[in-house]
């Protein structure tokens, strides 16, 4: 894991070939940005932490005094409660590298391990059989890989402890265990099917949105091209037929420049829509200099008069990163557009684009000293179709940036203080 900005996990321990363990741990908090998905992961961790902190003491009392069971263990309950306590503060602890591994350990110990151990000690009673099923349902609120690894490892360790405390293999509740395995297997199968069905539904929605965006973008090109040609025609007529001393001439030239600016801005939005309609995984990637891409994006941006002077680009850091230069230009264009609008809202500020280098990473930092945003807006910054202010834009720009960067193994995060600044950090791994 890399460190984070704004209390949100960035990066992951790697893709599948680097090991199942890394992928399982990263599935807890692998979002590289402050988006709805990463916030949901942290909410799940806090939710499970609350269940453990409340549930273990509560059910110790219930199974000990209200409906006594053959076996209870106050020390194991207390240990599980203590393990779950830090999970309640997952948001505050999310900048620490050890939290994902700790969350995996605590959830495995407090749910499958503890519940299966109590199940064995209570000779497979119906109360504990149902409790194990509930633990499995909770586990599958995380990734399927995480749930399966946690369940299997918890079951193995619980069985080893059961034997280590003096029980023989003959003490196993074999009949109850064999009776419950088909039920447990069916529950797991249903939960896996539900997760797959949800993923398919999300992918279908994304494909539908991509098709709609592509269609809208292509349909807009024709009237914009016509508008640009009209502006050129008017300009030619002005150059050939209007007296140089005409009082209307400056206003007409100003109107033409405004039309050109609007057309350029609309074409920029169309390029963003078209790029958003494509799967970043299908786009070719290679090593490129981010400084060159930034300069190209800023040079092509349709600034209002005086707008270009607000943008300052630091000298090249002399590094290369892995990705697609053209798509990265769209990312910079979108961040620049947002920054200029924030400056326009408050009538002050500038934009600084710079670099921060680390042994294994390159960061591109886009910072504006405009309006900034509140913590509430910051939490939803990368949520699909969320725009701020509400009437501005389609809410796909930052979603596009996030999707593109993730496809390269890069990440984007945001920090902001309302009325002071907004800072985006784009982090590329394996700089060279």
UniProtKB/TrEMBL annotation:
GO MF terms, alphabetically ordered: kinase activity
Enzyme Commission numbers on file: 2.7.13.3
Keyword Acetylation: no
UniProt catalytic activity: ATP + protein L-histidine = ADP + protein N-phospho-L-histidine
Keyword Metal-binding applies: no
Protein keywords: ATP-binding, Kinase, Membrane, Nucleotide-binding, Phosphoprotein, Transferase, Transmembrane, Transmembrane helix, Two-component regulatory system
InterPro entries named among the record's database cross-references: HATPase_C_sf, HATPase_dom, His_kinase_dom, HisK_dim/P_dom, HisK_dim/P_sf, Sig_transdc_His_kin-like_C
Pfam family, one: HisKA
Protein name stated in the entry: histidine kinase
Organism: Ralstonia soli
Source organism phylogeny: Bacteria, Pseudomonadati, Pseudomonadota, Betaproteobacteria, Burkholderiales
């Amino acid at each position: 894991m890399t460190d984070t900005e704004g209390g949100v996990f960035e990066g992951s321990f790697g893709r599948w070939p680097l090991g199942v363990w890394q992928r399982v741990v990263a599935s807890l908090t692998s979002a590289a940005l402050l988006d709805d998905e990463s916030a949901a992961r942290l909410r799940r961790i806090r939710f499970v932490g609350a269940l453990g902190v409340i549930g273990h003491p509560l059910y110790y009392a219930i199974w000990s005094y209200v409906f006594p069971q053959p076996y209870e263990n106050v020390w194991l309950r207390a240990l599980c409660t203590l393990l779950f306590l830090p999970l309640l503060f997952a948001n505050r602890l999310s900048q620490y590298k050890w939290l994902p591994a700790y969350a995996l350990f605590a959830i495995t110990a407090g749910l499958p391990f503890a519940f299966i151990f109590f199940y064995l000690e209570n000779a497979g009673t119906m109360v504990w059989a149902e409790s194990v099923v509930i633990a499995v349902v909770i586990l599958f609120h995380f990734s399927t890989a995480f749930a399966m690894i946690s369940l299997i490892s918890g079951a193995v360790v619980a069985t080893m402890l059961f034997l280590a405390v003096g029980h023989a293999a003959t003490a196993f509740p074999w009949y109850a265990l064999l009776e419950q395995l088909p039920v447990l297997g069916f529950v797991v199968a249903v939960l896996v099917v539900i997760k797959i069905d949800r993923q398919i539904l999300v992918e279908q929605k994304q494909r539908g949105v991509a098709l709609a965006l592509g269609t809208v973008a292509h349909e807009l090109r024709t009237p914009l091209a016509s508008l640009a040609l009209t502006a050129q025609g008017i300009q030619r007529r002005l150059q050939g037929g209007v007296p140089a001393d005409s009082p209307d001439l400056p206003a007409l030239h100003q109107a033409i420049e405004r039309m050109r600016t609007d057309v350029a801005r609309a074409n920029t939005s169309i390029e963003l829509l078209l790029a958003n309609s494509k799967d970043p995984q299908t786009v070719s990637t290679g090593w490129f200099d981010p400084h060159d891409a930034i300069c190209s994006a800023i040079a092509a941006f349709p600034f209002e008069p005086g707008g270009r002077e607000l943008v300052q680009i630091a000298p090249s850091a002399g590094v290369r990163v892995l990705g697609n230069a053209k798509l990265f230009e769209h990312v910079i264009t979108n961040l620049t557009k947002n920054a200029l609008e924030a400056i326009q809202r408050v009538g002050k500020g500038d934009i600084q684009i710079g670099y921060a280098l680390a042994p294994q990473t390159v960061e591109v930092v886009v910072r504006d000293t405009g309006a900034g945003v509140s913590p509430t807006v910051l939490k939803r910054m990368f949520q699909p179709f969320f725009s701020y202010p509400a009437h501005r834009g389609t809410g796909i720009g930052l979603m596009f940036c996030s999707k593109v960067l993730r496809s390269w193994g890069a990440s984007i995060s945001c920090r902001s203080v309302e009325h002071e600044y907004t800072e985006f950090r784009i982090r590329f791994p394996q700089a060279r």
